Structure formats: C-alpha cells, structure tokens
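FYI - complex with SN-glycerol-1-phosphate, inputs then prediction.
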Amino acid sequence: MKHTIYRKILLNREAGKKMFAVLIDPEKSSGRNFASLVAALKVASPDCIFIGGNHQLRSIESMIEILKEEIPSDIILFPDNASNYCVNADALLYLSMISGRNPDYLIGQHVQSSKALVESDMEIIPTAYLLIDGGKPGTEEYISNTRALPRDHNELVLSTVLAGELLGMRLTYLEAGRGADLPVPSSLISYLKERTHSPLIVGGGIDTLNDLSLAYHAGADLVVAGTVFENNPDKIIEFVNMVHQLNEQKDAELSAVSSE
Ligand code: 1GP
C-alpha cells in the first residue's frame, strides 16, 4: 500500500507548512467552467485537487486525465458513495462519517468498494469525516441521513476525533458542509489541535482570505475550498498565493531561529 501523499501531509505538518486543496464537483465543472478552472489552476497550482460531489457522477476519468496532464497537484478523490470513484486518481480519502450513526457511511459503503480499491493503484487514506454544524442544513446531512455535530460542543467533537484516531484513522476532516454559511469555528480547530494527533483537514464555507487565514492560524493543516471558485476561478490564484506567503514566512522564521 502506498503512503506517498499521507507522508507529504505529515512532513508538511512537521515543518509547520500549510497545504491547500481546491474541491472540484464534476457536475458543476463541465465545458467552459472546467476550462477556466484549469487555466487558473495552471497559474497557481494548489497542493491537491479534491474531486467529489454529492450525487452520482458522470465519468470523471477524462477530467482526471486532463488535470494530471495540465497541473502538478495531487488528485485526490473525495467520494460520497462506494461507486463514486475511478482508479486513475492519485489517492482516495477512505471516509468514515464518524459524526453520524448511519452504518452505511461508517462501514457499509466501504465493504462494497474495498476489493476494487485494494486492487487499484491508488493510495487509500483512512479518514475520519466529521460534519460540524455550518449554520444551515447541509446536503451532506440530507444525503447521509445523519446530523452534524454542534459547533459549540468542543468536548463532544474531541471525543469523536479521539475515537477516530483510536480506530486507526490517519486524517481528521472537519466539514462544515459545502456552501456552509459558517466555516468550522477557529476556536474548535485550535481546541482540537492541542489535544489530537492526526493532521486536520478543514473545509466548508471557507470563502474569503480571512476565513482561510483563521483556519490556518487555528491549526488546520490542509484547508479545502470549492464553492467560492465556482463562479470565480481566478480567486484560486489569491488563495494559493496566500498559502505560499504563509509558508515563506514560516521558512523565514525558521532560518532566523537557526542563524541565532
Ligand atoms: C470541502 O465541502 C467542502 O470540505 C467545500 O466546501 O464548497 O463551501 O468551499 P465549500
């Protein structure tokens, strides 16, 4: 089993470097939309592209082929159900929705896809997926038939993340929901950062550079954004530049410390 991308995430976290992913929903990114998305991604490539959607998708194979040819980002599948994957991506987040109690999203979907995934060449990354109340009922709740965790109950979220870690999940994904009104609170991110070990992915409702900066400063290792780019792909460039700036600052701090 490969661990290349997971290792990259760990190494970046150890070096204090932040990572950024653009979420592409294939249903909303066809034709001209996709072409302008690719054009922006070529100017400023994020660390990863997440491919995911809430519904049954058309074939995403050719979309992945184009992305792989055009940009250097890792292509990671972020599937919403067992049949929602194709094997030419670099990795797949093997999500277990541990914020909910729907067995289908805890293990059922996994049993359906496990054999094919083991036979594929993709890196499979066991990921604890937690829906956090994003200020409005999200599609994720509706589709999974689960309820999001309250955004102000830090201890409950912590117990859930720790349970995921004890079960062997390598990454923790805090999801406020696609197009959420409110991103995951930075106070919750920092609370978890101090008390957990797995790299933290944060997504949902991150629409501004300020949202992005708050998530990183609170302790997010990898931030995911999608909706904000749907009508304005050029914004990707601003977001990626900001991550580069933060990482350059970190490098400068480290070299200042080592030359003391
Ligand atoms: C990824 O669902 C999010 O975790 C993406 O949310 O579309 O609101 O950026 P947005």
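The pocket of SN-glycerol-1-phosphate is lined by residues 23, 175, 178-180, 203-206, 224-228 (CB under 6 Å). Residues 27 and 225 are 16 Å apart (CA to CA).
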